[in-house]
Amino acid sequence: MRTNNKPAFALAVIAGLIALAGMFTISMIYGAKDTSARDVWLALTSHAVGEQLTVLRELRLPRETAGMIVGAALGVAGAVMQGLTRNPLADPGLIGLSAGAYAALAFSIAMLPALGYFGMMVACFVGAALGAILVLGIGAARRGGMSPIRMVLAGSAVSAFLFAVAEGIGLAFKISKRVSMWTAGGLVGTTWEQIGTIAPFIGAGIAGAIVLGRALTLLSANEEAAIGVGLRTGQVKFVLYAAVVVLTGASVALIGNMAFVGLMIPHIVRYIVGTDYRKVVPMSAIVGAIFMLAADTISRTAIAPYEAPMASVIAVMGLPFFLFIVRKGVKTTL
To answer: Which domains does the chain have, with CATH numbers?
Structure first.
């Protein structure tokens, strides 16, 4: 269904928004304690009180709102990374960004316990940037430059190292339980204050990626051609990498490490709208939000009244997808 037709893209966006609204409703209704569509409507549109309405307003609404924001962030981050590197295996969780942010988070908890949520988010930005620098540096160190498989191998090695650093910090400072809670990833206990802190940064990162969609399309096709048409590739790359760092760091600060989302979503979106990143980026935000809501709903209902780790739920879906892409010989058109 590849198309460059504007009306078709508009229909895809409308369909995506309708699906997002439907998934949001489902995620609000179902959980350890099921509610009804009427309860959801009353919780969102009235000041009525009641136990069910309190659960919806105080627990599920901020949780699902955060899920949409983070899903959009990871979907866009993955699309940008795949476009910049022309690597169908690129994903913030697979190439060191998430692990770097996680290590920085552990360091902040141990060394700067009085640091507020905003400070921890900034630390995650720094950690994500360092993780990306390590992976890109190691992957490009050998003659022949960066290849898709080399990037994944470098990302796996750096991620393993940074996760070990985080766990080591947890053991040394006796904060293992607090640090490891972030490993599973999840939206439990999300507050409006946390959402208010990360939302402006994620919004700015997504907006920057959308604005530079045309430039990203040129870079993903041929960097020499992009230079030939006057594109300032160095500046564009810097802004796009900065957007990925912000999107990944903010996501890790809220829900911890979450691999595979940024890998899967862009592939799904490119099948729907084609390879023009002016369309891929906004659709990745919509589809990423839908996917995260679905994953959260499954994690809350699969073994209710207990909750499965969301990272495990996503890994069950993401690992076969990753193997499928590898099996295709990483020849997916970007």
So the answer is: 6-327 (1.10.3470.10)
